[in-house]
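Budget justification, computational time. The allocation requested in the original proposal was used primarily to generate structure tokens for proteins on the priority list. As evidence of use, we reproduce two of the resulting records. The first is shown immediately below.
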Amino acid sequence: MWKKTIGYYVCIGCICLSHYSGLGLLFHLDFVRSLSDAWYYFWLAIATACHVALLTFVIYKHKEKLIIVKPQFKWSYLGYSVAGFVMNLLWNALATPILPHGQNQNAINEVLQSIRGAALFWGMWIILGILTPIWEELIYRGVVMTALKRFQRFRLDLVVSASLFSMGHIVQFGWSTTDFILYFVPGLILGWVFRKTNRIYYSMATHVAWNSFLALLYTLSQR
């Protein structure tokens, strides 16, 4: 059993390494960057989707850590998902006048302002709006929180998951306490939704809805 568990986490680690480092190296190669913006973000979306699919498959095949289960609808679960979105909205309203814009968000805005048309569709709506939230929920809630489930009475699963979620958004820009707090709270909120529903789909729905809402606000602000 322990060999199977170790193999599972090794597979997860390799997929994460490929996603975070491999894609970064591949899409910085000169011949890839010479593509038009539309084709560049199209292929980036395809590569990201492949990583999401592979991660989903590995989690599904590891029965002891199964979180990819048949969707179960309950109004209470939907309520938790909506509550998570509202809490994110309230946190954003509270944090915006107090904390500076995160470096991660500033970097994203710079990229979005430099692309148009199909590239913006693939980059903002598909990658940032859908694929990235699904990937992050599978990793930070599905893998991390499930691995720490035995410690949930101490809320350790929530704290570790939210901390890693926040670090994942700021690590490439260097440490910033305000940036860490900015992303740590949404990580707690999404973890709360996952723990309350015990279904990854509801935290995914909250995360996708939030990122898509931000994409919509950005689109409207450019008109």
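The second record produced under the same allocation is shown here.
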Amino acid sequence: MGTGEFVALYCLNSLFWKWIISWGGAHWLEGWKAMALLEWFAWPWNAEQIRLYSVVMWGFTTLFFVVGLFKPEWRF
């Protein structure tokens, strides 16, 4: 995967997490939709728990993005 594709995928991923955290996506995802789009164990979570999960996952994806920028063989 080239650097341009890697950056584009990270930007799309960041938009998804931003939508959940800031633009009302957490309220929309409550219930079975959270199970379908996030994780199977997320279906009973309320909006605040979904936001917390999103912040943590965004942090991990950012960490992997930075590592992948400097070590291209670790990209997946």
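A brief technical remark on that second record: Residues 47-70 form the longest helix (24 residues).
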